[in-house]
Design goal:
CATH architecture of the largest domain: 3-Layer(aba) Sandwich
Radius of gyration: 20 Å
Largest sheet: 4 strands, antiparallel
Shape: globular
Bound molecules: flavin mononucleotide
CATH superfamily of the largest domain: NADH Oxidase
Helix content: 40-55%
Strand content: 5-15%
Number of strands: 4
Distance between the termini: 44 Å
Length: 245
């Protein structure tokens, strides 16, 4: 196994950072890595906003479930799915906006944005930095868009904290490949045979040092998915110009 993969297999989300800045060179490298991922048809449908204003950071942090570490991390980026450039090109050419409004465009821009973020995450971890995605920005997606002055055809998908780790959680055990990988077709019996994994996850939660709990992966997912979350997101997307069709 090479060192890139070894680093990837050591990934944990970091939520406890040292009071130590990351260097301008490191930031440049992170942005370069984020910009050099694959991108659908070369459209590069994302933007990255670094939040340096402490008041703005604080307002954004208060929207999330992760306020303390969003405030404490040295660097905080917001990843924006962005088809505004394409909309401007269409407008300048008096063309219909239908192609940036539809579900396919929405998927494309969220995919491109997520690829760029994960490139940044891998780059950060290769430098010994820690990261945490902050999807809970979407707790109030409309307010985030307002605070960041986002134009139409943009979506603040998630934030990412980056900093020097002070402490790290234990690795969270992933599913066996048998639960997630198959050949030629979806393997219902393998993919949903989760009893062994449930036990592994239960052991992990019972034994972990911070916030121990007696719960399995299935129980966790039931707790998450038995409620509908962020039902306002669809209205926000429509407000941004997407048709959701
Ligand atoms: C899109 C996305 C959004 C996330 N949002 C948050 C968040 O708002 N706050 C947080 O503390 N962790 C957040 N996480 C981190 C996940 O909880 C974490 O990746 C998961 O529990 C697995 O743990 P690990 O990353 O340590 O392996 C997010 C992860 C992703 C991919």
């Amino acid at each position: 196994m090479n060192s890139t993969i070894e680093n990837m297999l050591q990934h944990v989300s970091v939520r406890d950072f040292k009071d130590q800045p990351i260097t301008p060179q490191q930031k440049n490298d992170l942005i370069a890595a984020a910009q050099h991922g694959s991108t659908t048809e070369f459209v590069q449908a994302f933007s990255i906003i670094e939040i340096t204003d402490p008041k703005l950071r604080s307002k954004l942090a208060d929207i999330t479930i992760s306020s303390p570490h969003v405030k404490k991390a040295d660097t905080f980026y917001v990843f924006v799915a962005d088809l505004h450039r394409q909309a401007n090109i269409l407008r300048a050419n008096h063309e219909s906006l239908d192609s940036v409004k539809n579900m396919e465009a929405l998927l494309l821009s969220t995919i491109d944005t997520t690829i760029s973020a994960q490139n940044m995450a891998v780059a950060a971890e290769s430098m010994g930095l820690g990261i945490c995605y902050i999807g809970s920005l979407r707790n109030n997606i409309a307010q985030v868009a307002e605070l960041l002055k986002l134009p139409d055809f943009t979506i603040p998908l998630f934030g990412m904290t980056v900093g020097v780790p002070k402490s790290k959680n234990q690795l969270k055990p992933r599913m066996s490949p048998a639960n997630q990988v198959s050949i030629n077709s979806y393997d219902e019996s393998q993919f949903n045979n989760l009893s062994e994994y449930d036990q592994t996850v239960r052991n992990y939660y019972i034994n972990r040092k911070t916030n121990p709990a007696n719960t399995s992966w299935t129980e966790k997912n039931l707790a998450i998915f038995k409620e509908v979350h962020r039902a306002d997101v669809a209205d926000f997307l429509k407000k941004q110009g997407f048709s959701l069709k």
